[in-house]
Amino acid sequence: MSMGVPRNFDNGTIFLLQYSREQTVASFCKLIKFPKCFRLHLKKKMFTHFGRSNILCLCKRHYVRLVEVGRLNTQKLMNQKYDTGQLFFHQIFGCRGVILFPWLVRLYDRDIVIKADNEVGNVLKGKPHLYYQTLIDERDYPFIRSQREPVTCLGNQDASHGLYTIRGLDYVAQEDILPYTATEKKPLQHKFFDKFLKYNRNKDPPFSAQGTFRSWQKKNHPWLELLDVHKETTENVRVTVMSFFVGYRESQALYWWRYCILLENVGEQSVQLRERHWRIFSSSGTLETIRGRGVVGQEPILSKKSTAFQYSSYVSLETPIGHMWGTFQMEREDGHLFDCRIPEISLEGKSYYGKATCGTV
């Protein structure tokens, strides 16, 4: 089988790699000012393209083809918003997605501690930062190092106040957006893509919100709202935490929150998450300690090839106010163990969420 080769290397063209056997989209390569030699990692198989010749070498006996999907656009500055309908690649996970709408959150970055004048010690302040509600392409789920279950819990504002989840609905930071223009009218596969957006060739980006999307956004705003994001780095392992109030479950007399954690290895050495240690404080005065192996049944390895891992979980309290913090025990390649700090997050319930029962659609 002949393999497609980029026609122009320096024009921002984007290609997807596909197995000849499976015909499954597996990864992407953004082609901006190619170096003389670059490597593509696909399911742990190594591919090397030498210079600007039309040679694609495979270290294993697998064949792939390059499929053009669009052209990269210029990334916007940190204070410039992307529009609804903007297609993008995820800077960290490499998956495709589309922007629905922005959130202006308070980012508490403990790696950038402000030293206030005339004060002793350091003062941590939340800074405005753009995040986006996005839909992720269903074809890329198997290749994302995060949980395959839904990542967002939404409230259905009917009489039962039921909660449900939508697979592939995610939050992405401004700096992780790689915008691009697609070469096809339906570049993303998700069950809500056609319900939320419509194609408009005279618009840039060429997808605009439909009335059903605006109604959905207004209806589910309380359950989607992202207010605070916390970051902290320990020995080159960065932890980002987001939390969301889910609701009050009357049958259990408990308030529930969902939290999402992104771990990134920003160093040179591989590390593996071995244990978790949480402390959860309730305004009633109780302090709960939780220890366990790994997270969500896994002990993920963060390496140069796979630098990040994301997961979601839940926590409950008998009171509507509390906070939680903790550590991950990490192990380096040489066996060195260290505790990676999880930044403290607040747990605050809101009265307008009402009663909740959880389910999945």
From TrEMBL:
Pfam family, any one: DUF525
Start and end residues of each ApaG domain: 231-354
Signal peptide: none
Superkingdom, taxonomy of origin: Eukaryota
One GO BP: error-free translesion synthesis
Single GO cellular component term: nucleus
SMART domains, A to Z: YccV-like (SM00992)
Molecular-function GO term, any one: DNA binding
Protein's recorded name: ApaG domain-containing protein
Species, as recorded: Acyrthosiphon pisum
